[in-house]
């Protein structure tokens, strides 16, 4: 599993498209987590987990189960996850936004532990973290 993380509009998707341009990519927006990756269809790129969690979950446990159910069904050697780093800056005053920031922080920690590679994208520039 290779994770790309960066701030909003920092060029993550474009970087992944360019870096994997010679491969077949199956893009799955996280709003469609029920759609499992097709076997042997190239790389699976999962994006939008933060939006999915915010819109579909009210508790951390069910959010984690949903995300990891998808990840466990995918081949880790073919899986690419694009994450938006929402944990920096001012802590939101809105309770739901604070909850989302906390859940995504814990989710990202777990994903980073399990990932073979982690790359930070900062305005189109990549830095390997793991």
TrEMBL record:
Superkingdom assignment: Bacteria
Question: Which Gene Ontology MF annotations are present?
Answer: adenosylcobinamide kinase activity; nucleotide binding
The cross-references to Pfam families, in alphabetical order and at most eight, read: CobU
One GO BP annotation of this record: cobalamin biosynthetic process
Where exactly are the transmembrane stretches of this chain?
Answer: none
Q: What InterPro entries does its record include? A: CobU/CobP, P-loop_NTPase
Q: What is the name of this protein?
A: Uncharacterized protein
Tell me what organism the protein belongs to: Bhargavaea cecembensis
